[in-house]
Amino acid sequence: MNQYYETIMNLPAADDFKHLVQKWNTLSDRLKQTPLSTPSILPDMLWIVDPGSGITKKLTLLSEYIAAQGNLMDFYGDVKFFEFLMNYCPPDTPCTEIPRLMNEVRNAAGFRSEYRGMIRIHIDEWIGHCEEEHFTSLLEYLASNSDNWLIIFTISSFKASDSSTLEAILSMYLRIEKLTLRLPDVQSLFEYAEDILASFGFTLNEQAKSLLVDSIEILKRGKYFDGYKTIKLLCHDIVYDSFSNSQNSDTLLTEQTLSAFSVGSPYLERAIIKTERIYPIGFSVRG
Fold first, then answer.
1. Which of 212, 263, 206 lies closest to 235, judged by CA?
2. Among 19, 25, 156, 228, which residue has the fewest nearby CB atoms (within 10 Å)?
């Protein structure tokens, strides 16, 4: 059994993603009955994502899963995937993004003659502009390379209500399958926090559990809440605060010992501001 398949199936709050991989698992089994020269028939994708829903982790698992299957697509280059933010270029300005993407493809190929792999392209800035020539030129470029690449467009969930034209345009150039990636619910995030704290030897009484659930709920409401990453930072701050306090060596966390992390605390107010991150212009993440 593919170990990455098992890891994906155990992910919390990722039903659409798991359903996709289950379909591809069935597809892989069926393809084993066809000639080895069968080209990749995976569709390109449009992912509607909640900020903080763990896109890079899911891309890593997906690329490793596909590579381990051996018959869904080929990988060739220095990385199996990279991520690219497609900045908006008005019609009366040069389109800098296609040359920049082409350069990233060359970097991903390394010393190889071509790149084969996955590319995530974040296109929030093009919502409402997807019928413009610069964007259709991008789609023409991507379509000409779709045999070698699995292209995953992503838009943020708060843009999804304006995406109907985008979906129609994408489908004119590429075979597109859509899925939605949501944030885990508060209970799943709390259980994740509880596991982290337990790894440091901490337990929580009922009042502390209630306090932590309330704090996580407030953090989750932030527009740019970063999912499990934010919860991990919160837990590490709790551990740091507890371990560095010479007045308290108890590993049982209570409402009192967690008061600095409660709703309305200066820490939580700062944390909400910290989660409102802004992507740098033209970010590119490799995996």
1. 212
2. 19
Number of neighbours of residue 211 by Cβ within 10 angstroms: 22
What are the residues whose beta carbons fall under 8 Å from the beta carbon of 16, sequence distance 6 or more? 179, 180, 181
Question: CB of 132 within 8 A of CB of 91?
Answer: yes
Q: Is 52 left (phi over 0), alpha (psi -120 to 50) or beta?
A: left
Distance CA 53, CA 201 (A): 28
DSSP designation for 152: E
Nearest to 89 by CA among 136, 25, 50: 136
- At 105-127, the pLDDT tens digits run 999 999 999 999 999 999 999 99
Parallel, antiparallel, or unpaired for β 81-85 and 44-49?
A: unpaired
Instruction: Give me the helices (H) in 185-226, please.
Output: 186-199, 206-220
Determine the Cα–Cα distance for residues 264 and 258; give it in Å rounded to an integer. 12
The alpha carbon of residue 72 and the mean position of all alpha carbons in its chain are separated, in whole angstroms, by 21
> Do 95 and 63 meet the contact criterion of CB atoms below 8 Å apart?
no
> What whole-number distance in Å separates Cα of residue 160 and Cα of residue 166?
10
**Structure confidence by residue, pLDDT tens digits, 160-190:** 888 889 999 999 999 999 999 988 889 989 9
CB 131 within 8 A of CB 161: no
